[in-house]
Amino acid sequence: MSNREVVVLSVGGVRFVTRASTLQQFPESRLARMLNDDDREFKLVNGEFFVDRDGTLFSYIMDFLRTLQVSLPMDFSDYQRLQREAEFYGLYPLADLLSQEHLLKPRLEILEVRFALQEMQAFFRIFGSCSTTVETLAEQITVFTGQQAGQSWNSPFPSQKPLVPVPLERPSHHDMVFQCGTEYSAGDQFVARYVSIKPDNRKLINGINVLGLLLDTLLKDGFRLISTRTVSSEEKVGCYSFERMKRPAGLTV
């Protein structure tokens, strides 16, 4: 039996087809010994191994054997039952990982966007509980600056002069600061700042438009808007709070 390349198992009435080498990833496990007829729990019936265990949970066992990673659905909750199944099959490395349940559960991620309007300028500050998310978002956002003559921030067309990208301010790994709009320079010259947020390729100068695109980008990335509030009515500072459940990285043996 150990030389058989393809193995068929019926676990709790659910049929699985796999390679013998997959079941032999852990030679001391009962699944590996099964191929040598060394375990009476596994009955060979019409060329298929039958075992009276939970077939749904066994699908996670098979995924682990194929990838050597533990990656569970966002709504998974049967950690103890799956750990018992891993122990039954003699897959103790998997059982040890499942005992660290806190590492496998999805984590709540919080993001906050603060937005302020001052005359012809808009100011943004983004705080995030996950520094990786903030870093990824910072890579999506580009601020361009350039000088214009006699134009306001509501002008629909950017200056004909080349626009120069400028780096975002990063007070810490968990936040970023940027602004858009226009401010007076010298004479009738304006310094204009445009914002582009990938994958949208527009360069926006109006703060309300930038805010709308930013919120839409976060919603498409899986965040959920949970609250809006006014931080300072005098300074016209608004705050938008988001949350999402973030899948943990798969633990690898």
Automatic annotation (TrEMBL):
<dbReference type="GO" id="GO:0005783">
    <property type="term" value="C:endoplasmic reticulum"/>
</dbReference>
<keyword id="KW-0407">Ion channel</keyword>
<dbReference type="GO" id="GO:0051260">
    <property type="term" value="P:protein homooligomerization"/>
</dbReference>
<dbReference type="Pfam" id="PF02214">
    <property type="entry name" value="BTB_2"/>
</dbReference>
<dbReference type="InterPro" id="IPR011333">
    <property type="entry name" value="SKP1/BTB/POZ_sf"/>
</dbReference>
<keyword id="KW-0406">Ion transport</keyword>
<protein>
    <submittedName>
        <fullName>Putative potassium channel regulatory protein</fullName>
    </submittedName>
</protein>
<keyword id="KW-0813">Transport</keyword>
<dbReference type="InterPro" id="IPR000210">
    <property type="entry name" value="BTB/POZ_dom"/>
</dbReference>
<feature type="domain" description="BTB">
    <location>
        <begin position="5"/>
        <end position="106"/>
    </location>
</feature>
<dbReference type="GO" id="GO:0034220">
    <property type="term" value="P:monoatomic ion transmembrane transport"/>
</dbReference>
<dbReference type="InterPro" id="IPR003131">
    <property type="entry name" value="T1-type_BTB"/>
</dbReference>
